[in-house]
Amino acid sequence: MRTLALVETGHVEIIDAPIPSPKPNEVLLRITGVGVCGSDLSVFFGHREVPSYPWVMGHEAVGVIVEVGSDVTNKQIGSRVVVEPNYCCMQCAPCLSGQTSGCENRIIIGMTTPGLLADYVCVPSEFAWVAPTELPTRELICLEPYTVGAAAFRRSKAKSGQNALVVGAGSTGLMLITLLVEQGLNVYFMEPHVARSELAKDLGATAHDSSNLVDYHQCFETSGTSVGMETALELVHPGGVVTLLGLSTDPAKITPASVVRNRLTIRGSMIYDHPIDFASVMAKPPRSLSKIIRGEFRLEEAQKAFEAARSVPGKSWINFEEEQES
């Protein structure tokens, strides 16, 4: 089978590998599509070290079950599934408290264990979610990052009718905008990239206007910059909530007195918690994510896909279906 591997920083190649066999608790998937994520780009460009080379990347995967392990009773061959690519142990203190996003033994697909950019992969049955039938593969690859936004929304306790500002309209921000609009919030955004801004508007959000200030009850920082955090804290209404999704190691200027006097809540939102967030999204998927998909590539074009992903105003993905059918 074909497997896409990072052979050195900034360079991927297709290599041949045997088709794996599922363990008793696993399902074997024929992959039909994989999304390109910002964390993939961190690996590709060498900002995040990998355990070894060649290294298989990719975690936002959709596939069809072609074989089930001997202990699997709740999955059927032929079912389309979306992979939840963060395997929690369900035994450590964070897991037992329901906060599996903080699992002390978390296995991160494509980061700490080989990824899903291959014709066939095995995944634990518990982390293979039967996909909504109404969405095509190109939209299903968005459900994992969409679930990141769904978890942030849940944790923020945002409500319909509130004003929400999304700082950053990359793919995570665009997914979150889609969710917030569907949940009935009045959604605004900040994004310097012109094409991304136009896409955010097309999704139903309004560009922030410094000359016409809005009382933002909720601010979601998705840009992953310290400036983004500072901006959210500056613009959130007194008594409001700032939810941080972006990861930045740069220090941010924050005055404790302003947080206290303005009665602000600052919440970090790390990925999602198993199983509640994926279960919620699968039970009530978004109506459509088609507008966010802007870059489609074949596996042979994967090098181009990774190099171009940062300039694409929306989501990029690698389509396995067309080649498997030919």
Main traits of this protein?
326 residues, alpha/beta, Quinone Oxidoreductase, Chain A, domain 1, Rossmann fold, six-stranded parallel beta sheet, 11 helices, 29% strand
CATH superfamily of the largest domain: Medium-chain alcohol dehydrogenases, catalytic domain
Rounded to an integer, what's the Rg over CA atoms? 20 Å
The first-to-last residue Cα distance is: 15 Å
Class by alpha and beta content: alpha/beta
Q: Which CATH first-tier class of the largest domain would you pick?
A: Alpha Beta
Mean of the pLDDT scores? Answer: 96
CATH architecture grouping of the largest domain: Alpha-Beta Complex
Reported by name, the CATH topology of the largest domain is Quinone Oxidoreductase, Chain A, domain 1
Q: How much strand?
A: 25-35%
Biggest beta sheet summary: 7 strands, mixed
Total DSSP helices? 11
Could you describe the 3D structure shown?
It is a single chain. This protein is α/β, with parallel strands linked by helices and 326 residues long. The protein has 2 domains: 2-142 and 289-325, Quinone Oxidoreductase, Chain A, domain 1, CATH 3.90.180; 148-268, Rossmann fold. It contains 11 helices and 18 strands. The protein has helices spanning 38-44, 93-96, 137-140, 143-156, 171-182, 194-202, 226-235, 256-261, 276-283, 302-308, 321-325; strands spanning 2-8, 11-16, 26-36, 55-56, 60-68, 80-83, 86-87, 107-108, 120-124, 128-130, 163-167, 186-190, 206-207, 216-221, 236-244, 265-268, 293-298, 315-319. Strand 1 and strand 2 form a beta hairpin. The longest helix has 14 residues, at 143-156. It is globular. It starts with a strand and ends with a helix.
